[in-house]
Amino acid sequence: MEITNVTEYDAIAKQKLPKMVYDYYASGAEDQWTLQENRNAFSRILFRPRILIDVNKIDMATTVLGFKISMPIMVAPTAMQKMAHPDGEYATARAASAAGTIMTLSSWATSSVEEVASTGPGIRFFQLYVYKNRKVVEQLVRRAEKAGFKAIALTVDTPRLGRRESDIKNRFTLPSNLTLKNFEGLDLGKMDEANDSGLASYVAGQIDRTLSWKDVQWLQTITNLPILVKGVLTGEDARIAIQAGAAGIIVSNHGARQLDYVPATISALEEVVKATQGRVPVFLDGGVRRGTDVFKALALGASGIFIGRPVVFALAAEGEAGVRKVLQMLRDEFELTMALSGCRSLSEITRNHIVTEWDTPRHLPKL
């Protein structure tokens, strides 16, 4: 069967993967209300397309933190990709590079920063969890820098792991043939069997619950890399992030895997964008499955989006070729959406190109 959209990889991954692995990638926290809402909220935003504009040439290129990329669609950090496919993060890195976009490597990758760097050229960011042992954090950040990574995406929504019930039921743990490669030499690479989720126990033991804004400033003393704060959902925190020296903000609810009943990221986006007043770029992570979703995020002020689950599901289904296809399909859909909305470049995508459920008539442009 020919794959014609990104979502179709989900069912193939479910067929191919062991239940414990598929459930780990697919599930959200508790009732999974936010997991559904991350998708559903996009469907309540409608287009106001402009017609009879010459859309023969469409330019999707943009820059992120000064790095030129082919499109505003990037790869989010997702953990333990070798559970999906033996090539894991290597395949994802090559696919992102081939698409001319950015890959973010997870701290909990099953390939190290050095291994991913060895796949060849490409612009890569490193997602960071702050461990209780700060020497480990310093070492890791230095290694990422040395391996040519260009930014740190600091995850700030995980002082504790969200309650993911399928991981508890499945007694989730990292398969014995794999390790968290970035921590291998530090005896932090293995996850023990637990009577609930092995990952939840690992986080409780290793990740620093005291993490606060002062640590964002501390991070800037150990690296010159720009820091993206990942996990912001309110205007208040967006303003504090800027004061703390963040180079950018990723509006994220951790794929709906942390606190359930937070809004969809697309619903929180505009508040965050308004609070930043253009001082730093704002990116969106969560729920993007169509080129139309990318356009909606940009119309609400995002500088770009990140995709997570579509990457691991495509990786499970078809390896590197699957990830390439996901990036290509989203690119093609986004280009078509731009053309049919009358936008020839990203700068032409405006708030007037969409209407949201929270718009009142005064939001709409004067005729």
From TrEMBL:
Which residues participate directly in catalysis?
H254
Q: Pfam families given for it?
A: FMN_dh (PF01070)
Query: Which InterPro entries does UniProt cross-reference here?
Result: Aldolase_TIM, Alpha-hydoxy_acid_DH_FMN, FMN-dep_DH, FMN_HAD, FMN_hydac_DH_AS
Where does the record say this protein resides?
Peroxisome
This protein's cofactor list reads:
FMN
Record GO biological process: defense response to bacterium; hydrogen peroxide biosynthetic process; oxidative photosynthetic carbon pathway
The family note in this entry says: Belongs to the FMN-dependent alpha-hydroxy acid dehydrogenase family.
Protein name as it appears in the record: (S)-2-hydroxy-acid oxidase
Tell me which species this is from.
Capsella rubella
